[in-house]
Amino acid sequence: MAASMKRKAFDTSENEAIPIVSFSHGALNVSKEGNGDNLPTFKLLKHSKSDIVKRKQWRILTARGQKIDYVGSNYGELALKASSTSKYMVGVLDKRTGKMQAYDAQLFRLHPWIQRDETQKQKKDDTLTFLEKTHRLTENFGSKRGKRSLNSLIRNKVSQEFIEKAVSEAVENAAVDLPETSDYVQLESEHFQLLPPCNKDASAPADIYKLEDILPLELMDHLDQKGDSLLNASVEEIEKWQKEESCPFYVLDHLPLSDYAFSEDKDLSVKRKAAILAYITVLMQLFITKKRNLESLTMLNEIPLSIKDYIVSKFLQESSTPSGSIKRSLTKLSKDKVMIHILLLALHVDSFRTKLDCLQRDTGIPPKRMLQYVRSFGGKPRLLKKHEMESTDIVGTKKYLMELKGPVDLSPKKVLRQRRSQTR
């Protein structure tokens, strides 16, 4: 400890109580005469100015040692409880006269004082929210029921960062699912285009949307096996497919394909028509499925790998997962693109004049929505006239026919409209 103890006459005129000091974890090594080595230096502090009477009695006693400092007070947490309930006196004996004089005294218990950065501690505490502080109190001092509730809350808690990533993925993955009240759907975006390449000024219908831009010719050859099953289908097989509803009504309406063997369509052979109908069958299954993830689209496992890769890259949209990987899924925007390609392929099969009743029956699309699809790529829908309807058609029902003639108009008023919200 620091310097030696200095004796100083106590001024009794100020009515100041004599401090009696004890240490929390030891005692000073002092002789009866008051001498010792490395004794601390004591200092008594009081308020210099205070309007509150109680605070005028507050005292702080410090002891500065060689290695460590001590502090004590007669108020607050460091004050001795006995000081407030008892009165202490110090007697000073005069050896010459044999008389003793009594003085008021107050007790101080000194504790080691370690300097620390209060601002840093306060800053650390401020990082905790009120809820986190409450949870800490419950964890340390709460009842069993409170602790069980806290543990249940922690187990069911989901990371805020994960929620944000999941929401971001959902918005990106199903962007077209949300704006049900919007008037239009974009036919083009930076990464996804609904329409195939279009020559708006072409006069011949086959040149407006070329078949090789919808289904490449090299891939059409990979559909020969599927197409041959339609081309060589017997009457019994066709009736079986019709009974089991395992084949689209639009495709069944074109069977048997032997009836088209002597057709005047020079642009498309019967074998090519069979391959296109097989491709339309796959697209129909893709359109009506309620599954979204690529892994769950089992109908793609039944077709050649080259056709599957083409469909995945052409129709499924990419999105990023919270882990950073890329996945493909079938969104509503993807289904819009599938439906447009089905209609364009049907126009090529039917020499650009296609009845819509079978397509509506296969897809479950209402007539108004189907007409919007037709207008989206520049097609012209119209009601069938009486002499164009078949004998099996119910009298009074409305049936539509779509045609494609050049040049086409793709102005915004023709763009595919979305269904308006029913809650409007």
Automatic annotation (TrEMBL):
GO terms for cellular component: DNA-directed RNA polymerase complex; nucleolus. This is DNA-directed RNA polymerase I subunit RPA49. GO terms for biological process: DNA-templated transcription. Belongs to the eukaryotic RPA49/POLR1E RNA polymerase subunit family. Keywords: DNA-directed RNA polymerase, Nucleus, Transcription. It is found in: Nucleus, Nucleolus. PANTHER family: DNA-DIRECTED RNA POLYMERASE I SUBUNIT RPA49 (PTHR14440). Signal peptide: none annotated. Pfam families: RNA_pol_I_A49. One of its GO terms (molecular function) is DNA binding.
